[in-house]
Design brief:
By secondary structure, this protein is mainly beta. About 5% of the residues lie in helices and about 35% in strands. The protein has one helix and 27 strands. Strands 1, 2, 3, 6, 11, 12, 13 and 15 form an eight-stranded antiparallel β-sheet that branches. Strands 4-5-14-7-8-9-10 form a seven-stranded antiparallel β-sheet, with no helix packed on it.
Length: about 525
């Protein structure tokens, strides 16, 4: 149960952050470790874990808003109580205004926290920034050793931690960047070390940039690659790597989580040390999924387009954490083109008055044939989000013994488009439908815009259920190599009543397959 809880927290928090940001992208191939690989990240950007694209920035701490947590409330600037244990300095490493300074004075209790002489920031409570086995991440940060003294033979040899990739629960620390004597070194969880700067003195009071790429695993299939850019260097240089290496030291089943810390931890006796940090970033290196699976899905009750004055996109609701769950399969593949709907008002609203020109039509989007079908009911009592996707007006039977036939003008529809450079291979489409009564339409067919809705994608599906939600499925494996927008239409017919309004409802849908890069 602990494992399930940890992952649920992780995914829900990531979903909460998704719509808050536009994601920056990294060039394909991390072998080109140049300074030109920059990330434009105005805000934190992420989505459900599977919704992270390669190169999306998960955490971006620049201190440019002038606060010790960089405006991210879950970041803890320090547990040390001294007023100057953490403070802002100017200028920053690459940004013009601010960086953070951490200070430790040995022997002064104001700089003693968590059982040692330390002042460190951490992102442990930034749930999106946590890491788990299977995550592939890039960690970037800049460090300035402020007035760092020369170490002489006979001086204390205490190592000072400057950055840590931690695992909770007291587990071995997977990686630490440390200063000891006159060197900068890496220390790993197996206690092995590597000096990456033999003499730090030429770089005191100058910014040193680090980049660490990690595949987090509990087996010997992971890696850690550390790159560094010293003052005067144009590019990042690989300074150490471990491959075929178990990188995650904890046990997710026991509730262990991975997180980052930066600051100053441990200083030599009777000394004062100060270190600056800036541009702390976490970047996703996991590739988008290419295996067959869910491409786009949603639970319809979270938003009802039947009461809106124009086509409505459900994607503006799909990452709402109160709606996101595995049961309703709310998801959008990261390589589907996305545009949120905007300024949509209800048909029956008076302030503002409905105006289709106000609408920004989103993609992907769902709708129904408004010329033939109308809203048929409310589950919440009010129009709009939380109402039910339930429409009426389907064709009635001509006579009691002759069920209604296929009507090409009455349908639900779903429009989606791959991003430039990608294509769809569809496998199947699933829907959960219901009928307003035993005489309402009971047969469903699926068609697509690829042939202008001329032919059924697979055989019709007939159900016997009525108001009980009933799952139906269509094989779409014949639809491959689709690199343009596509619209699916779900038709219903087979009503046996000759009068009254027939109703067909839709509770959720799942469109599955692959989204692959164009060769």
């Amino acid at each position: 149960m602990k494992k399930k809880s940890v992952y649920l927290q992780k995914y829900l928090a990531i979903a909460l952050l998704f719509l808050a940001s536009a994601c920056s992208k990294i060039q394909n191939g991390v072998t080109s470790q140049t300074e030109d690989q920059k990330f434009t990240v105005p805000k934190m950007a992420s989505g459900p874990q599977a919704n992270l694209n390669y190169g999306d920035t998960i955490l971006n701490v620049t201190y440019e808003n002038g606060t010790l947590n960089s405006g991210i409330s879950a970041i803890n600037p320090t547990n040390a109580t001294a007023t100057d244990a953490a403070y802002l300095v100017s200028p920053g490493a690459t940004t013009p205004n601010y960086a953070i300074a951490h200070k430790v004075v040995y022997g002064d209790s104001g700089y003693n926290s968590d059982g040692n002489w330390r002042s460190e920031s951490d992102a442990q409570q930034v749930i999106a920034a946590r890491y788990f086995p299977g995550d592939e991440r890039r960690y970037e940060f800049s460090v300035l050793l402020k007035d760092w003294p020369v170490w002489n033979q006979g001086d204390p040899t205490n190592e000072s931690n400057l950055f840590q990739l931690k695992v909770s629960g007291g587990e071995n620390v997977p990686l630490m960047i440390r200063a000891q004597r006159n060197a900068v070194r890496i220390r790993y969880q197996d206690v092995s070390t590597k000096d990456i700067v033999s003499n730090l003195q030429p770089y005191v009071n100058q910014w040193i940039k680090f980049r660490i790429d990690v595949l987090w695993t509990t087996t010997t299939t992971g890696y850690m690659r550390t790159y560094m850019k010293l003052p005067g260097q144009n590019d990042f240089v690989l300074v150490d790597e471990k491959t075929n290496y178990a990188t995650f030291t904890g046990d997710v089943n026991a509730g262990n989580i991975g997180y980052i810390k930066w600051g100053l931890y441990v200083v030599p006796p009777n000394s004062t040390r100060i270190v600056y940090h800036d541009d702390i970033r976490i970047i996703n290196l996991n590739q988008a999924p290419t295996t067959t699976g869910l491409i786009w899905g949603n639970s319809i009750p979270d938003a009802n387009p039947a009461y809106l004055d124009g086509p409505y996109t459900l994607t503006s609701n799909i990452t709402n954490p109160t709606a996101y769950n595995n049961t309703s399969h709310i998801y959008i593949h990261p390589n589907i083109k996305y545009q949120a709907a905007q300024n949509i008002v209800y048909v029956n609203s008076t302030n503002p008055a409905p105006n289709p020109a106000d609408n920004v039509i989103g993609t992907p989007r769902s709708d129904f044939s408004r010329a033939t079908l109308t809203a048929a009911g409310l589950s919440s009592g009010t129009p709009g989000p939380a109402a039910r996707y339930l429409v009426g007006g389907w064709v009635n039977a001509v006579s009691a013994g002759t069920p209604s036939v296929f009507d090409p003008t009455a349908y639900y529809e779903f429009n989606m488009e791959p991003k430039t450079g990608y294509y769809f291979n569809f496998s199947d489409l699933k829907f959960t439908v219901l009928r307003g009564g035993t005489t309402h339409p009971n047969t469903f067919v699926l068609r697509s815009s690829l042939d202008n809705f001329a032919a059924n994608i697979s055989a019709p599906v007939t159900i016997s259920g009525t108001t009980t939600p009933t799952p139906i499925s269509f094989n779409a494996s014949s639809l491959t190599n689709i690199n343009t927008a596509i619209t699916f239409r779900l038709y219903a017919y087979g009503a046996t009543t000759t009068s009254g309004t027939t109703i067909v409802g839709l509770n959720d849908f799942q469109i599955s397959g692959q989204v692959l890069p164009t060769p």
